[in-house]
Amino acid sequence: MKRLTKAIILTLLKIIVVFYTVFPFYWAIVSSFKTGSALFSVDFFPPIDLTNYRDLLTNGNFLRNILNSAIVAVSVVTLSLIFAITSAYALGKLKFRGRGVVLAAILGASMFPQIVVLSGLFGTIRWLGLYNSLGSLVLSYMIFSLPFTVWVMTSFIRQIPAELEDAARMDGCSTWAMIWQIYFPLLAPALASTGLLAFIASWNEFLFALTFTLSDTVRTVPVGLALISGSSRFELPFGTIMAASVIVTVPLILLVLIFQRRIVSGLTAGAVK
Amino acid sequence: MADLSLTNVRKAFGALTVLHGIDLTIEDGELVVFVGPSGCGKSTLLRAIAGLEEISGGDIRIGGDIVNHVAPADRQIAMVFQSYALYPHMDVYRNMAFGLKFAKIPKDEIDRRVRKAASILKLDAVLDRKPGALSGGQRQRVAIGRAIVRQPKIFLFDEPLSNLDAALRVNTRIEIAKLHRELGATMIYVTHDQVEAMTLADKIVVLNGGRVEQVGTPLDLYHAPANLFVAGFIGSPAMNLIQARVISLGNGALRLSVGEQQVNIPYSGPAIAAGAPITIGIRPEHWIPGEGQSMKIEGTVDLVEHLGETSIIYMRLADGQMLTVRYPGDIFCKAGDRFVAEAPVAAVHLFNDAGQAMLGRRSSPAYGILGHEFRAR
Question: Does A171 sit within 8 Å of B47, measured CB to CB?
Fold first, then answer.
């Protein structure tokens, strides 16, 4: 009896959690199939109508925005991982004065809210001549992707036994070859998980993207999506916005599903052991 | 050729000095074992020879050339690590070939060497496996294979057997000895296990606290330890070290007091003042009555252990000192019995106040198997 109640409560809780997390996305999918006033009627299983998707993909800069997002996110991930693995080697394996300070500074840099660094960063980007280019976004996204990737990589690289490096040294391996031929393959699971998280963060970022870009052709998807407007200023095209949201979310869901197991093992292994 | 010589090699980590001026010569083709308690600097010395630790002073010469600042890979040395340190993401073949690639050796030559090493070490069947899929013994052999293919002048082994179980350890020990015979290469082997040291070594280097205590063949160290440390370290059960005082010296004999008891030991060294402290050393297995003059000490049996082939008696002297006596076969006595241990004076070692073996006792004689035959070498 007691066991039965426990099972029922547990199942109920599960249903609530799933509903809470999945329903908004389901509602977005459902809404993306509706147009006009149908949007305001409650209909859980409307007929599949791809008008909104067709509009979105044929008009305007939406595809361009997706491409921009992809370019930025992939660049951020690639650069972050290259910097992270090399700095993690230095911070995790080499002994030098001020190592702890550097690690603390990296962590500290990630503590400022975006809005605090926004104006200063804006000046820097203007000064570098990167305003209204994808480069400005790659540069600014590294501010939050690097501390995280460096920290996770450092804790991972510390677990790799020192004798492995000694053996590679005896084999005539240079430091550069060691990083790429020994550490890189061994860190692959950690790279997959941190890379994915950096990708998601860059893909979803809004504030910097809104501030540092101006023209439609350099906008990324979150900004493009927010600026979708209807035929008149009194109309908010919910259907199109929902269709765009679904298109933007799907790649992330696919990526997470593919790397799911690695994310979990990667993050816990880095933190606990 | 590939002889190695160390002159006044020192190593300090900040304020902590780990090696205090090591002088050592290793001949071509020798198998030398560094042995000592943990923290004695034996691994640091090996890593310094390998080039993994920069030395703080002195010179390391390989084949006559100073290699103090030569990179590890260019010293023509190969090392087998305690944890094997195989590359987990590479299969056995690539593990062995990895270093050769950097040495710019042609592909077919690499292939030839790897396959030859694999056949020597019976690894042919597992060349395409990753280290994770190998047994401990196989991993150990891959680590040795990785050293062989480099065709080094000197092999370094850092406690290579400590991760293996007892049975495999004996086998691998024999394999390493065989390998040394076949390759004829110079090998340096670090261990804290004195059985490994005694069985493998042409020459043993006993290290303690970053200093060389004694260098010699295994039997030299057993029969003529230069100081108290070596006396206590080599041999199992450990040598009995009995605190005594000089009563008098005369007629070629030293009269010593052990508690209330007195013993006479022939002595021909320099004069010693009456009252000077002296340590008498006798190995547990040498308490066997033999011909000629013997030394007797009386005590009470504390415990007897019957091991079948030997019996070990732990006895307590009147002044509280403990003695270990090892008898071949069975002995019939029990706790509380009075017991007189008797050893031939030829088996007695004497150490002075500073712990050094006393002159005139430096080379003790060799013994017949059960101690009934004592003759000078």
Answer: no
CA dist B26 and B194 (Å) reads 20
Gap from B99 CA to chain A (nearest CA, Å): 4
Same domain? A119 vs A243: yes
Q: Do B78 and A170 touch (CB under 8 A)?
A: yes
pLDDT digit of tens for each residue in chain B (377 aa)? 568 999 999 999 988 999 999 999 999 999 999 999 988 999 999 999 999 999 999 999 998 899 999 999 999 999 999 988 999 889 999 999 999 999 889 999 999 999 999 998 989 999 999 988 898 889 999 999 999 999 999 999 999 988 888 888 888 899 899 999 988 889 999 998 888 999 999 999 999 999 999 999 999 899 889 999 999 999 888 999 999 999 998 888 889 999 889 998 888 878 888 889 999 999 999 888 767 788 899 999 999 999 988 999 999 999 999 999 998 888 888 889 999 998 888 888 999 988 888 855 444 444 433 333 433 33
Q: What CATH number does the domain containing A156 carry? A: 1.10.3720.10
Q: Which residues contact B106 (CB under 8 A, 6 or more apart)?
A: none
pTM recorded for the entire structure: 0.80
Both A22 and A81 in one domain: the answer is no
Cβ contacts of A172 on chain B, cutoff 8 Å: 71-74, 99, 102-103
Query: Measured between alpha carbons, how far is B204 from B192 in angstroms, rounded to an integer?
Result: 12
Asked whether residue A136 falls in the same domain as residue A162, the answer is: yes
Side-chain half-sphere CA neighbours of B44 within 13 A: 26
ipTM of the complex: 0.80
Q: Which domain, by its residues, includes A116?
A: 61-271
Residue type, A95: K
Residues A44, A162: one domain?
A: no
How many structural domains comprise chain A? 2
Closest chain B residue to A171, measured at CA? B99
Which chain B residue has its CA at the smallest distance from A167's CA? B85
Does residue A193 share a domain with residue A129?
A: yes
- B4: tokens are 């190695």
